Amino acid sequence: MRLSQLMRAFFLLISAVFHPLLIVSYLIGLLLITTPALFGQVHWQAGLPSWASITLFTAMLPLITIALLKPLGLLHSYGMPTRKERFIPYIIMMIFYFWASINLYFQPTIPLTIVRIVVAMTLGIVLAFLTNLAIKVSIHAMGAGMLLLWSFWLYREVLPPTLSIDSSMTSLPSAYVLPAAVIISGLIVSARLYLQAHTLREVGLGLLLGLISPLLIIQWLR
Q: What letter does residue 167 receive in the DSSP assignment?
């Protein structure tokens, strides 16, 4: 296989594994594993049902629904190269995220940090939808921006000094989350540019929306 084919396959994998709708699940999973007390649990395994429920409604169901659009003739390509093709998928994402945000907000047992992460993604999707009415924007880059911002904020405000899945494993400094987030976000952005799915302007707009949305929610939702 040629190098260009390997690179394309690699960046397609990156785009799939770090789809923006999965970013919320990854962030909440990080919190569950490293700070189970935030979920009112002693061991992270006990919080898996809560994590799975949030993942179902913020990632799995919207992705499955969007995937069904092509067989129904409502979507020409999963790459959605035009602004027009993104209209219905954005509506689907907003419906699921509004539903998840409202339900989590009115559940007193759900930590505020979790609510903030979900509501911030909801705001990001709304802003991306409105921007898409005039200019195509990279929602992958928006997810990368959110990953960066939330990783920095969680490191400063929430995460313990060291990270460990359980006491029998070697702990790592929580600061490792920051370079990991930078590397992953860089790969996401590079993937969208390499695959020519977006221009530099579209990626820049996405990153900006991904950085702004959490900042607004952190200030508003207290």
A: T
Dihedrals phi, psi of 57, to nearest 5 degrees: -90, -15
Instruction: Give pLDDT, residue 20.
Output: 94
Q: Which domain holds residue 203?
A: 3-220
Q: Which two tokens stand for residue 98?
A: 């509004």
Distance CA 61, CA 67 (A): 10
Measure the CA–CA gap between 117 and 110, rounded to whole angstroms.
Answer: 12
Cα–Cα distance for residue pair 20/38, rounded to 1 Å: 24
* pLDDT tens sequence across 66-119: 999 988 877 787 777 788 888 999 999 999 999 999 999 998 888 899 999 999
Q: Which residues pair with 162 in a beta bridge?
A: 173
Burial-class residue 21 by CB neighbours within 10 Å (0-12, 13-18, 19+).
buried
Query: Per the structure block, which two tokens stand in for 33?
Result: 């594993």
| Nearest-10 crossing angle of helices 87-105, 112-132 | 160
Pairwise CA distance, residues 139 & 80, whole Å: 11
List, for residues 177-222, the tens digit of each pLDDT value. 999 999 999 999 999 999 998 999 999 999 999 999 999 999 998 7
This prediction's pTM: 0.91
Report the domain count for the chain. 1
